[in-house]
Amino acid sequence: LRNGPLAGKHVLITSGPTHEPIDPVRYIANRSSGAQGTALAEAVLALGGNVTFVTGPAAAARPSGARVVEVETARQMADAVQAALPADAAIFCAAVADWRVENASDLKMKKDGSGTLPALQFAENPDILATVSQGDNRPGIVIGFAAETHDVIANAQAKRARKGCDWIVANDVRPETGIMGGDENAAILVTADDVEEWPRLSKDQTARRIAARLAEELS
Ligand code: C5P
């Protein structure tokens, strides 16, 4: 058994993007390096927690010591998350595609020379954070992320209420902040009755703060 304030606690973390196929060689996705998710997993592991790390196809290294589940699509991520429950806490860091292509092709789509363009039809993906927050097997603490470009706090508070999670870690991702794809984060922790603006920190430091807060809350 490992030591630390999270010893014996199971923490489920989603990370990375999901890929939604258009055909066997093409997909749509959100931009996500997986860096914040991997940093979070490492921070929870460092405090002695057991981590199930459900990740889409991300560039970031996989956290060593976690149980890693690799998925591609949002629906696969949703299934992997359900299969990993119960958990003491869940942190939804993944940039899940909101829509999948309903008429994805089994064969590579070809230009037919006539100039006819493919018509993609979309279907909505399950909202994994909302489903788990409102489900029977709800972990004691559920944390979501919010990337916002304006009205960051108000949008995060509304998102917290709408999804039914406990905390939202909100980030201002306006391009001039350099946060998207960068090494740093400026997070705002929104809880039921509080708003904490954290200074600009590395993604590792942000992860350690979240893990420390989680340990306090679970103790
Ligand atoms: O609704 P929005 O995508 O802005 O919410 C972001 C939060 O919800 C993140 O924590 C993300 O991981 C989670 N999410 C999810 N499943 C979705 C969409 C978002 O778990 N289909």
UniProtKB/TrEMBL annotation:
What keywords would UniProt list here? Decarboxylase, Flavoprotein, FMN, Ligase, Lyase, Magnesium, Metal-binding, Multifunctional enzyme
Q: In which pathway does it act?
A: Cofactor biosynthesis; coenzyme A biosynthesis; CoA from (R)-pantothenate: step 3/5; Cofactor biosynthesis; coenzyme A biosynthesis; CoA from (R)-pantothenate: step 2/5
**Could you say which cofactors this protein requires?**
FMN; Mg(2+)
- Biological-process GO terms, alphabetical: coenzyme A biosynthetic process; pantothenate catabolic process
What does the entry's cofactor note say about binding and number? Binds 1 FMN per subunit.
Catalytic activity of the protein:
N-[(R)-4-phosphopantothenoyl]-L-cysteine + H(+) = (R)-4'-phosphopantetheine + CO2; (R)-4'-phosphopantothenate + L-cysteine + CTP = N-[(R)-4-phosphopantothenoyl]-L-cysteine + CMP + diphosphate + H(+)
Q: Which residues bind CTP?
A: 98, 108, 126-129, 145, 159, 163
Which stretches make up the DNA/pantothenate metabolism flavoprotein C-terminal domain? Answer: 6-216
The protein depicted here goes by the name Coenzyme A biosynthesis bifunctional protein CoaBC
| Biological source species | Pontivivens insulae
Name of the encoding gene: coaBC
Where the shown chain sits in the full protein? 176 to 394 of 394
